[in-house]
Design brief:
Blueprint (H helix, E strand, L loop, with lengths): L2 E3 L3 H24 L5 H26 L2 E3 L7 H22 L8 H22 L34 E2 L2 E2 L30 H18 L5 H16 L4 H17 L6 H19 L40 E2 L2 E2 L1
Antiparallel strand pairs: 1-2, 3-4, 5-6
Helix pairs in contact: 1-2, 1-6, 1-8, 2-3, 3-4, 4-5, 4-6, 5-6, 6-7, 6-8, 7-8
């Protein structure tokens, strides 16, 4: 039975720190665009409200020992709320905000694309099929239709005896528990299709990261928000500890190389995320003291798509173009 395990403490801390920065800048952009574009301002306020509600639901989910998404439990309503809030936020973002942000500051553009990746990150954590929290069970070949048992030279059991040249078959049904069973799908499929959301999330995180590298200073809180959640996603969803650590290390190096100034509030936000990124640099290494439910081997399984690779889900994901006259071409 597919189950969503309790959110890892480090994952939860990373998501909350990134979300606080996103909400702060969402409110600022919604206020600044109120006179020039009231409609965009209203949509930004709506996404801000959904983000605040979603953060509260994630805090409740963090406290759960286990969230079973396939049957009616006390936590089922919470699971539905998380999926619904993420779906509504993504709908507003893709239909109303993303088409308009190209005419505004690069900060807003990066934030909008980062939020899209964040919503897909929620889908991967809570609603992905197959679950990123489970180890796949290998399937074994079934008995051929000819009625002959497959040859197994390593088996310790002799082949069935022959009667008149015909192999004796089991006349009765298989014992209980050995019959094929279908794995139930999450109960929130009426809200969102149960499928693999990793290709979309990977492509959108990759695009938001490239956009932030091109247009924002290395110490900018929005850029660090992108890097923090992207690194957490690589480790906990793609199980690629090496890529996560390299991304965190590069983000910290860019902070120290940045020459742009910042106010006290931005400095505090940046300092908090640099601290999280510093822990991510050591996460999964021996003696780091950072435990996680997802252990990394430094490689990505073959079934896990690499970030940014198009495979039908994300054919429409744009590629970042170099700047030209202050705008991306």
């Amino acid at each position: 039975m597919a189950q969503f395990q309790k959110l890892d403490a480090f994952v939860f801390h990373s998501l909350m720190a990134s979300s606080e920065v996103d909400q702060k800048f969402l409110g600022r952009f919604a206020r600044d665009t109120n006179n020039a574009n009231p409609f965009l301002s209203a949509m930004l306020y709506k996404v801000l409200g959904l983000s605040v509600l979603l953060s509260k639901k994630l805090i409740r989910a963090r406290r759960l020992r286990r969230l079973d998404t396939t049957r009616d439990t006390k936590s089922l309503q919470l699971y539905h709320h998380i999926i619904w809030l993420s779906r509504e936020g993504l709908t507003i973002l893709e239909e109303y905000i993303l088409p308009m942000v190209d005419n505004y500051t690069f900060e807003l553009r990066v934030l909008a694309h980062k939020l899209r990746a964040s919503f897909y990150h929620i889908f991967v954590l809570f609603h992905n099929q197959p679950s990123v929290h489970q180890t796949a069970i290998p399937s074994f070949p079934s008995t051929p239709a000819t009625g002959k048992a497959p040859a197994n030279r390593e088996s310790l059991r002799d082949s069935p005896p022959l009667v008149n040249g015909i192999s004796i078959k089991n006349p009765g049904p298989l014992p209980p528990g050995l019959t094929p069973v279908s794995v139930p799908k999450p109960s929130a499929t009426f809200l969102l299709p149960a499928r693999n959301y990793i290709p979309n999330a990977s492509a959108y995180f990759s695009y938001a990261s490239e956009l932030a590298d091109l247009h924002l200073a290395g110490s900018h809180p929005v850029r660090l928000s992108v890097k923090t959640e992207y690194a957490a996603y690589l480790y906990d969803c793609l199980h690629d500890g090496e890529a996560s650590r390299k991304l965190a290390q590069a983000a910290i190096r860019d902070v120290y190389n940045a020459q742009e100034g910042m106010d006290d509030e931005m400095f505090e936000d940046a300092a908090e995320m640099v601290g999280i990124l510093g822990k991510m640099m050591r996460r999964g290494l021996k003696g780091s003291g950072l435990s996680s439910t997802s252990r990394s081997t430094g490689t990505t399984p073959q079934s896990t798509p690499r970030p940014g690779i198009s495979n039908g889900f994300n054919d429409g994901v744009p590629k970042v173009a170099p700047m030209s006259n202050g705008k991306a071409s």
